[in-house]
Amino acid sequence: MSNSIENYSVSLVSGGKLQTPFNYNHNEIEYTSKYDLLNNSFNFYTDSDRDYSIIPFNNMLRLYCINTRQCMKTIKFNNNKNLEHIFLNSSFVENNIIGSSIIKIDDINFIELITKNGQIVYVPLDRRIDYDTDIKTLAIEFLNNEGKKIAITQVLNDNVVLMEDEDKSNFYIGNRVNEDDCVKIVIKKIIPKDQLITYSWSNNKSNLLVIKKSQSDISKQKEGKKSRKNNSHNTYNSIDCFIFTTNQIDIQEPILKFENIEINTSDSISKNSKIITQSTISNDLSKLAIGFASGVIQLISLNQTDSSTITQFLKWHCDSVLSLAFNTSSSQLYSGGWEKVFVYWDLSQGSIKKNFIPRLNGVIVSINEPDFKENYISVLLQHVDNMTNMDLEFLLLNKSDFKSKLSVNGPLINFESDYLIKNLKGENIRPKSAIKSKSLSSNNNYNNDITIRSFTNSINSPEILYFPHCNGINTYDLNKNESLKYIQLSKSVEIGKIRNEHEDIIEPEILKIENFLIEHNNIKYEFLITLESLKSQQNSIFANTQKKSNNEISYTLKFWKKSTNSEHNDWILQTKIISPHGVENNQLLGDIEIVDIHISNTNSNSHVNKHIFTTDKYGGIKKWAVLEIPNNVADDNLCWKFGLINYKSSNNNLITENNFVIESLDKSLILQSLGDRLYFLDSINMNSILKFLQLDSNIQTMQLNKINGNIVIMTKIGLLTYDLIKNEIINGFDMYDEFKKSMISQDVINNNVNKSLVLKNGLEFKNMKRLMSINPLNGDITLVVNDIMDKTSTIYFFDKDLNDIILKKNHDSWISCMKWNNFNNFNFIDINSRIGIISDNISNNNNGTVIKQEDDYDLLKPLNSDNTNVEFVSDSNMKNKKELEMIIDTDTVMDSRIRLNNHTFLPLFNSVNSNTMVDTVFDTVLKMLK
After folding, report:
1. What pairing do the DSSP bridges indicate for beta strands 182-192 and 136-143?
2. Burial class (CB in 10 A: 0-12, 13-18, 19+), 87
3. Which end is more exposed in the chain, N or C (fewer Cβ atoms within 10 Å of the end residue's Cβ)?
4. Other C-beta atoms within 10 Å of 327: how many?
């Protein structure tokens, strides 16, 4: 690799997430499924005796061969100027694909895509598409729309289109009229949204079912509105069902009408028994099914001659029914919901029989039997345990044995907070469980945190990425653009049918992962370390009454070894350490929060030199290493023993979110950042502070540059490089104005980011560690700055000595994490789950589109090191001459907390943004008191 980074390119090469066609505010999601994705966006066709599925992502279309389970073709939107303009013109709310179909024009197969903003796009299926290929598009014109802005929600066939207006006050049914240069949609039916309960259609899309409130319910609701302020508009006693046929030219009037159908699913007074969550109608119009939040399914047999009905109740689900579908022959009913269990009801016999398959990976939000083949069932799953992102998974099941024929999903990622999905991402939130409530609020106060839980690359295969996700790890292949495997490292309790089990279950979450190599007898073994948290719902006298929440968190550190069996990609647990940093002081429940995990910076893979550091929020540090190696390392049943070999005790008087540590190149020093100070610790006696470096603002992150041995430090106002040999800061850049772009106030959030930028009191970047990385081959430094207002990000490139900014590149979306991939380039992932590569070898990036380079660097000015306020303080009083014994247990030494030391006043520095150097800690206290 060259010493210059002038050839660095930034490319989007992989990733993406399954397309979600609807935009709803998070407070609108009740127990109702809003997903009708499978019926329109996903399409199937047969060619040359092979079956194919077209699956839309937010950044591409993928064509899968069902028979071979392989992706046959990928059409990336950013590889064509027309597709890029249509689908990638907004970073946050994508121009969603509402419907797709296969059509033939002049003996050429095209994919017809209908978008939410009123365009029809024709993408060639059998021809190569390059950046300059002209893609034909048609505009959609809405007639009879009364001047309102209309958005398409569903396209049932060539005749019928479903719509809603911008403020979601009306539901529209319209006819599609094709013309040479445009497509016109004539609105035929308008239904006020406050009267509409739900709508659905038959498997062949020939019948449209609309369920409205009955007139008697509407009258009662108006009468009781004043007297009952909390009256729920989601519960009903009776409904009216209207059935339209989509084959007729004028769809204005229904062909069948069934009024005042009673809703009486249970004797329970719970409102869940009256909340309709899903519906469907059979192809032959003989049956209609309605699902409820209580889990009951109301099966209604329809008599078309006299409009009479016969009702049966199907009871198996114990939570919200989110998906319902009849098969083509109307002899079976498929249902799914919050229990993650697919149930199929046999309706062909006199008595209804039910069967079900074991739990799937996620909540079943949509079921469809593709009309091109009756031996498949398509299922859409959502991983609802992740409340910070929209994780969808597409499954195609073989109807004969219900085994998976195809499974497709993008990279599964966890954001650190739910800021994006609550405030800016226009996509669906997880559907609610009727019996299990989860708070959507973040655990920390960093509401505008847009970073993800940091991923890592496989050491032996850098193209394999590991994403921590809920209680497992999503293994993603960058080259194949596929999720390879979901590994559940922390197995949750299997949810059964019993309601109490379903309600009370708490699953652990993996917060951090890091991997490393250990070489033994000239054989390299890959290890993984995970930090796992588990909330405890303790509502007894042992609960901490001083906190707002009764959820105390326990932490577990686990060490895993990759299986030596090449046929399995499994991780085998080696050592499990419960409460690695001890419990909170005077607490019966709840562990000390672990802030960071750091693997020692060493080129040696010997187990003697391989150390793992963990830090906590009270300034404590623990160093872990291998204590014992099994005699037969090839035997996966024998475990390596990891344990504690050194520590710095915690200080109860200090609370910090940014407690990072690194080792010097010669491993003689441990450097720790606390607030605005960088402490130099003796590596043998870590409780001995040799000296500290006083900076002018809080340290956000720091890394060791292996090329020159310098420490790269990011503070709240800039980037610095510190020379350990010269004991001085040698270079720096003032980036305060750039860092301000990454901050946003709560006032701006509540007004949809329409106001001018208002800063929070004091800049804090909790996870800037994930946005700065160093090239270990030449020492080049990369830094990401996200611009909240412009919804873009900038990647800055510095040389190894931080003398100059070589270049900067812009990206059209926020970047959520960036890491060196242990090979020859950087990997990053943005908020739209798209994965990119930053590389200095453009020839390696044929898959991606190089992002334009910007050449003006006037915004950033180097600091003059002579004017930088730093001071070295020797601390001989704190040296502990007592020999530190090796510790191999997991208890935290707590006796140091009762002693008062200068750490007590460190939090005061967090609110001091002055560049004035203070002589002593006590002088600072006096000035603040004045």
Report:
1. parallel
2. buried
3. C
4. 18
Residue pLDDT, tens place only, 190-208: 888 888 888 888 888 888 9
Count of CA atoms in the C-beta half-sphere (13 A) of 594 = 29
Q: Exposed, middle or buried by CB within 10 Å (0-12, 13-18, 19+), for 149?
A: exposed
Residue 168 three-state SS:
coil
User: In 84-149, which ranges are E strands?
Assistant: 97-105, 108-115, 119-124, 136-143
Helices marked H in 660-804: 736-740, 746-750
**Order of strands across the sheet that contains 353-356:** 321-326, 332-337, 343-346, 353-356
Token code pair at residue 139: 């505009």
pLDDT band at 477 (very low <50, low <70, confident <90, very high): very high
What does the block give as tokens for 313? 């109740």
Which runs of E-coded beta strand occur in 821-916?
Answer: 826-830, 834-839, 853-854, 861-862, 871-874
Nearest to 35 by CA among 518, 573, 596, 428: 428
Largest CA distance in the chain: 97
Spatial separation of the C-alpha atoms in residues 568 and 570, rounded to whole Å:
5
Secondary structure class of 50 (helix, strand, coil): strand
Q: What is the CA radius of gyration of the chain?
A: 30
CA atoms within 13 A on the CB side of 596: 28
Give 602-646 pLDDT, tens digit per residue: 777 788 888 999 999 999 999 999 999 998 888 888 899 999 999
pLDDT mean over 280-288: 90
| Cα three-residue angle 464-767-681, rounded to 5 degrees | 100
Residues 6+ away with beta carbon under 8 Å from 662: 598, 601, 670, 671, 702, 703, 704, 711
CATH T-level assignment (fold) for domain 449-694+881-930: Methylamine Dehydrogenase; Chain H (2.130.10)
Q: Can you give 178-195 as a three-state secondary structure string? A: ECCCEEEEEEEEEEECCC
Residue found by looking up tokens 């994965």 in the block: 835
**761, 767, 773, 776: CA torsion to nearest 10:** 130
Say which residues have a Cβ less than 8 Å from residue 549's Cβ, sequence separation at least 6. none
From the CB of residue 834, how many other CB atoms can be counted at a distance below 10 Å?
Answer: 27
Point out which residues pair with 171 in neighbouring strands: 164, 191
Neighbours of 285 (CB within 10 A): 18
Residue with tokens 């430090």: 713
**Do the Cβ atoms of 879 and 687 come closer than 8 Å?**
no
Provide the terminal-to-terminal Cα distance of the chain, rounded to the nearest Å: 57
**Among 233, 308, 247, 237, which residue's Cα sits nearest to residue 269?**
237
CA 53 to chain centre: 25
As a whole number of angstroms, the distance between CA 515 and CA 527 comes to 6
Would you state the structure tokens that stand for residue 759, as one six-digit string?
Answer: 């800063």
- Residue with the bigger pLDDT between 770 and 767: it is 770
Residue 273 three-state SS: helix
Strand partners, 562: 571
To which H or E segment does residue 923 belong? helix 921-929
Residue with tokens 């907070």: 417
- The dihedral of CA 393, 35, 27, 427: what is its sign? positive
* Domain edges within the chain: 449-694+881-930, 696-869
pLDDT for 245 beyond 70: yes
Higher pLDDT, 908 or 627: 627
Task: Write the DSSP assignment of 581-620 as a string of letters.
Answer: T-BPTT-SS-BPPEEEEEE---S--BTTT--EEEEETTS-
pLDDT at 503 over 60: no
With 0-12 / 13-18 / 19 or more C-beta atoms within 10 angstroms meaning exposed / middle / buried, residue 471 is middle
Q: Could you give the CA distance from residue 69 to residue 71 in angstroms, rounded to a whole number?
A: 7
Beta bridge partners of 176: 185
β partners of residue 691: 680, 874
Q: Return the closest-CA partner of residue 347 out of 394, 375, 376, 310.
A: 310
